[in-house]
């Protein structure tokens, strides 16, 4: 978290003093320009400061009027440093008679999850093994170098170019998983170095924007599969997902596309177009609109490097074609991996669940293997020793090489409280994307015709 806010030790409450508040009073402050949050029973007025938040203004707004303690702990590796920046925003605390949790959350589950995190910290599960990430970066650079050497040594024939494209798409996908690690501040000891290397990996190695990624991705983690809060379930009216949205669209007679066929046209406008079309446009639009000039400079450095290397062999036109073909392949890889544990899961409006329950209802387990770990960037690790998106979700600042260490403890907590989770094969998870789209399409058609 960055600086900002009023430069006073305390902001007085609504009665001109350091206040005590009920949950009812806190929950009145949820609109943009008037937002309060609760962290560790302390009440903060973040109305103006949200614009300065390094993780983006919306992520805090999604917790306005709520207890944000679990999200605050999950996203910030150096809590003491962040608390210093929060002092000017402090306006009071909850009344002694008020519970620590809002919205009838299970206090025992919340407390046990807090204790689990402390136990994992004591066991060193949040400590990084630098060699893991050095080798991961090294294999990305090696793939890039081999691709260029193949063109240099064997020319631009169709077979050689196809091999080069596969190597480049693999490097791009693996760089995507690596930037994810730095973006979550889970590699370096300080946030500053994580942010710097993040800009290098996502900017210079991938041609994207760290600021854009932070703005989107932290919202996704903060409120996964929650309509109007998770941008990853904003389908731009191209798809209807889950069980609630299809019926809602059907009842309102909304038909931007024939959603009962979305499981078919998904193959044509989903995986092929997300990165080369939608993300490509959104990244540059976001950088220019919000003045992210440092990100833009890193991004431009990627394009300069690429075209300097490949136009001398292919010329400008075919270098552009190769670039977009690589993006096309990378987009398939990205969509299938990231959506396999989300689209088939529960997608709904805000339910104000505790952190553990909210994360697990929105994701699932995929069986573990060395290939699956590498292929998915360890996003396969969900809840137990078999794979880990939930570990990424429960503990986003934990280095991914330690997910397996946390697995038995988190699974035991789930079993204790009856928190359900699903486990699938990689192929089964891919197939479930299509099955869930087909089911959602059927729900839409029924509501559209009969309700």
Automatic annotation (TrEMBL):
<dbReference type="InterPro" id="IPR001199">
    <property type="entry name" value="Cyt_B5-like_heme/steroid-bd"/>
</dbReference>
<dbReference type="InterPro" id="IPR036400">
    <property type="entry name" value="Cyt_B5-like_heme/steroid_sf"/>
</dbReference>
<feature type="transmembrane region" description="Helical">
    <location>
        <begin position="303"/>
        <end position="326"/>
    </location>
</feature>
<dbReference type="GO" id="GO:0016020">
    <property type="term" value="C:membrane"/>
</dbReference>
<keyword id="KW-0443">Lipid metabolism</keyword>
<keyword id="KW-0813">Transport</keyword>
<keyword id="KW-0276">Fatty acid metabolism</keyword>
<dbReference type="InterPro" id="IPR005804">
    <property type="entry name" value="FA_desaturase_dom"/>
</dbReference>
<dbReference type="GO" id="GO:0016717">
    <property type="term" value="F:oxidoreductase activity, acting on paired donors, with oxidation of a pair of donors resulting in the reduction of molecular oxygen to two molecules of water"/>
</dbReference>
<keyword id="KW-1133">Transmembrane helix</keyword>
<keyword id="KW-0444">Lipid biosynthesis</keyword>
<feature type="transmembrane region" description="Helical">
    <location>
        <begin position="265"/>
        <end position="283"/>
    </location>
</feature>
<keyword id="KW-0812">Transmembrane</keyword>
<keyword id="KW-0275">Fatty acid biosynthesis</keyword>
<keyword id="KW-0472">Membrane</keyword>
<dbReference type="Pfam" id="PF00487">
    <property type="entry name" value="FA_desaturase"/>
</dbReference>
<dbReference type="GO" id="GO:0012505">
    <property type="term" value="C:endomembrane system"/>
</dbReference>
<feature type="domain" description="Cytochrome b5 heme-binding">
    <location>
        <begin position="18"/>
        <end position="95"/>
    </location>
</feature>
<dbReference type="InterPro" id="IPR012171">
    <property type="entry name" value="Fatty_acid_desaturase"/>
</dbReference>
<dbReference type="Pfam" id="PF00173">
    <property type="entry name" value="Cyt-b5"/>
</dbReference>
<keyword id="KW-0560">Oxidoreductase</keyword>
<protein>
    <submittedName>
        <fullName>Fatty acid desaturase 2</fullName>
    </submittedName>
</protein>
<keyword id="KW-0249">Electron transport</keyword>
<dbReference type="GO" id="GO:0006636">
    <property type="term" value="P:unsaturated fatty acid biosynthetic process"/>
</dbReference>
<comment type="similarity">
    <text>Belongs to the fatty acid desaturase type 1 family.</text>
</comment>
<comment type="pathway">
    <text>Lipid metabolism; polyunsaturated fatty acid biosynthesis.</text>
</comment>
């Amino acid at each position: 978290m960055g600086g900002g806010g009023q430069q006073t030790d305390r902001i007085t409450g609504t009665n001109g003093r350091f206040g005590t508040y009920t949950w009812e009073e806190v929950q009145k402050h949820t609109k943009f320009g008037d937002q309060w949050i609760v962290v560790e029973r302390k009440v903060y007025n973040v109305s103006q400061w949200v614009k300065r938040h390094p993780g983006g203004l919306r992520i805090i707004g999604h917790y306005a009027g709520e207890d944000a303690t679990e999200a605050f702990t999950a996203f910030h590796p150096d809590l003491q440093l962040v608390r210093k920046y929060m002092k000017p925003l402090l306006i009071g605390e909850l009344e002694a008679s008020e519970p620590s949790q809002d919205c009838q959350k299970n206090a025992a589950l919340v407390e046990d999850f807090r204790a689990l995190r402390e136990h994992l910290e004591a066991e060193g599960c949040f400590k990084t093994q630098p060699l893991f990430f050095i080798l991961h970066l090294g294999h990305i650079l090696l793939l890039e170098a081999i691709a260029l050497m193949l063109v240099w040594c064997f020319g631009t024939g169709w077979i050689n170019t196809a091999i080069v494209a596969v190597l480049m798409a693999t490097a791009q996908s693996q760089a995507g998983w690596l930037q994810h690690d730095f973006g979550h501040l889970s590699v370096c000891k300080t946030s500053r170095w994580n942010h710097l290397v993040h800009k290098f990996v996502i900017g210079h190695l991938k041609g994207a924007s760290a600021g854009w990624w932070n703005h989107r991705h932290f919202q996704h983690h903060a409120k996964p599969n929650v309509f109007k809060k998770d941008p990853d379930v904003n389908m731009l009216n191209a798809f209807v997902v889950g069980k609630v949205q299809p019926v809602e669209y059907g009842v309102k007679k909304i038909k931007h596309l024939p959603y009962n066929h979305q499981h078919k046209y998904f193959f044509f406008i989903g995986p092929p177009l997300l990165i080369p079309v939608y993300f490509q446009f959104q990244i540059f639009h976001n950088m220019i609109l919000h003045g992210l000039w440092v990100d833009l400079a890193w991004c431009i450095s990627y394009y300069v490097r690429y075209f300097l290397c490949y136009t001398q062999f292919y010329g400008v036109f075919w270098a552009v074609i190769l670039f977009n073909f690589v993006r096309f392949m990378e987009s398939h890889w990205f969509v299938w991996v990231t959506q396999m544990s989300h689209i088939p899961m529960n997608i709904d409006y805000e339910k104000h669940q505790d952190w553990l329950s909210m994360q697990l209802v929105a994701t699932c387990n995929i069986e573990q293997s060395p290939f699956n770990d590498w292929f998915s960037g360890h996003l396969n690790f969900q809840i137990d020793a078999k794979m880990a998106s939930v570990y990424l979700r429960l503990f986003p600042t934990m280095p991914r090489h330690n997910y397996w260490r946390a697995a038995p403890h988190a699974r035991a907590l789930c079993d204790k409280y009856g928190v359900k989770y699903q486990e699938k094969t990689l192929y089964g998870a891919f197939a479930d994307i299509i099955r869930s789209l087909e089911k959602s399409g059927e729900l839409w058609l029924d509501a559209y015709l009969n309700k």
